[in-house]
Amino acid sequence: MALTGLQIYKLLPQTNCKECGFPTCLAFAMKLAAKQAELKACPYVSEASKSQLEAASQPPIRLITLSTDGRKAVAGNEIVLFRHEKTFFNPAPIFVRVKDTDADLAAKAKEMNAFAVDYVGIKLQLSGVAIENASGDANKFAAAVDAVRGASDFPLILIAKDPAAFEAAMAKAKGAVPLFYAADASNVAALAAVAKKFNAPLAVKGDGLDATAALAEQAKAAGIEDIVIDPGARDFLGTLTLATQIRRLAVKKNFRALGYPVITFPGEGVSSADEELVLAAQHIGKYAGFVVLDHFTPASAYALLVLRQNIYTDPQKPIQVQPGLYEINAPKPESPVLVTTNFSITYFSISNEVEGAGLPAWLMVADAEGMSVLTAWAAGKFDADRIAKAVKTTNVESKISRKRLVLPGHVAVLMGEVEEALPGWQIDVGPREAVDVPAYMKLKP
Ligand code: SF4
After folding, report:
1. In terms of domains, do 175 and 219 share one?
2. What is the separation, in whole angstroms, between the first and last Cα of the chain?
3. Minimum CA distance residue for ligand 1 atom 6
4. Ligand 1 pocket, 32 CB below 6 A?
5. Is 319 contained in some domain?
6. Are both 53 and 79 inside the same structural domain?
7. Structural domain total, the chain
8. Which ranges of the chain have pLDDT less than 70?
9. Residues 6 or more apart in contact with residue 373 via CB below 8 angstroms
10. 147-161: per-residue pLDDT in tens?
């Protein structure tokens, strides 16, 4: 758990020599606690204090990175129980499981690899493929890994029991860092040895918290640092309870044996693909590190990816687009200039409506610190000055033949002030809702 400024101060030399750039050791300690300074700025910290301070600065949930040549799937590094306390950092990677007995393995991997959706300017995609050695045959497993790698650039989770299967699979996974799933009490030593050989993270699967923590400790003692945990539960209540206890123990109690991302398999706790989707949503909210689905459809993946995006958005920072001048449907000099703010959803609402209607327009996005029109206006972040500034910085005047701006209907009250701030411009007030903008544009082109 993070140390307080006073606790850090007790570990510093307390000579107030100022070499760190701060007037006192206490001032430096306070900055360290706020993560606004680095320990290496003090050349006089003893080795013992250094290791204590470094241990305390470790995140309570270890960062685990799976990778292929081109892509990564990252989980962990979370430091809070609730996103409103700060934010969640690494969106739970979503994998889909295939089996080495599936005939259409490569086609499935290809389809999932190609799946991508644009959500308010963010490209959302699945994170990887989990390949299960359902056949029990190491060669078949290796062939499946080869087929998936040939059809996709996804990071991998390899699911098998036999160390020989992992050995065979890794011959076809050169350059990749997959997760090995999963060691249990019967094979933890053997799987830890093979995971160590390939420098791969290892998942451990226990039955409950105590058994899972014990397995994680065993894997760690065997030299594995990158561990993922599966506490065994599969149903709605069991997974919620255990995942919450694990997050609480890791974050609040700094319980290192459970300070790892949790892997979940929502398809194993339900009886239909629809229920799997609901349970996966629960896992994304609380508190999965990796989620492995058994079913993929574009519709279900889209729903989960958008949910995940929303949960892992910093609640203190609205999703924004870059302020500036955007062209919609190849506008001409006489096309209207629509004004809006740089809140992503506001921007995409308007641009989608206008683009969908096939109408050319200039969309001038003012910097309103990522807030929507009404919120920004109420907070004093969207006013005549900001609109005039956007006119200047975008140099919109050089692209148009008539100086006319269309304000959002919600801020009709700004019309007079904008007229004063932009002499010579015609200021019109458009509709309140984005959906009504095309009709307005047809009426007043
Ligand atoms: S350099 Fe170290 S000893 Fe000197 S004031 Fe800074 S923290 Fe204290």
Report:
1. yes
2. 60
3. 20
4. no
5. no
6. no
7. 3
8. 1-2, 35, 57
9. 340, 341, 343, 346, 382, 408, 410, 411
10. 999 999 999 999 999
Neighbour tally for 38: CB within 10 Å: 11
Q: If you measure from the C-alpha of residue 1 to the centroid of ligand 1, how many angstroms do you get, rounded to a whole number? A: 23
pLDDT digits (tens, 9 = 90+) for 229-239: 999 999 999 99
Report the CATH number at residue 246: 3.20.20.20
Domain that residue 27 falls in: 5-57
pLDDT at site 235: 97
* 9 CA from centroid of ligand 1 (Å): 10
Of 9, 19, 30, 40, the one to substitute when testing ligand 1's pocket (max ligand atoms within 8 A of C-beta) is: 19
pLDDT in the model for residue 4: 84
Atom of ligand 1 nearest to the CA of 18: 5
Q: Which of 24, 32, 42 to mutate to test the pocket of ligand 1 (most atoms within 8 A of CB)?
A: 42
For residue 257, what are its two tokens? Answer: 């044996």
Q: Which atom of ligand 1 is nearest to the CA of 13?
A: 3
pTM to 2 decimal places: 0.79
- Conformational region of residue 57, where left means phi above 0, alpha means psi within -120 to 50, and beta covers everything else: alpha
pLDDT the model gives residue 122:
84
Is residue 317 a part of any domain in this protein?
no
pLDDT at 409: 96
282 shares its domain with 304:
yes
Instruction: Please tell me if the CB atom of residue 23 comes closer than 6 angstroms to any atom of ligand 1.
Output: no
Helices and strands counted in the chain (H then E): 16, 17
One domain, residues 218 and 328: no
CB contact at 8 A, 12 and 25: yes
Asked whether residue 261 falls in the same domain as residue 305, the answer is: yes
Pair 221, 247 in one domain: yes
Atom 7 in ligand 1: residue holding the nearest Cα: 25
Does the Cβ of 16 fall within 6 Å of ligand 1? yes
271 in the same domain as 420: no
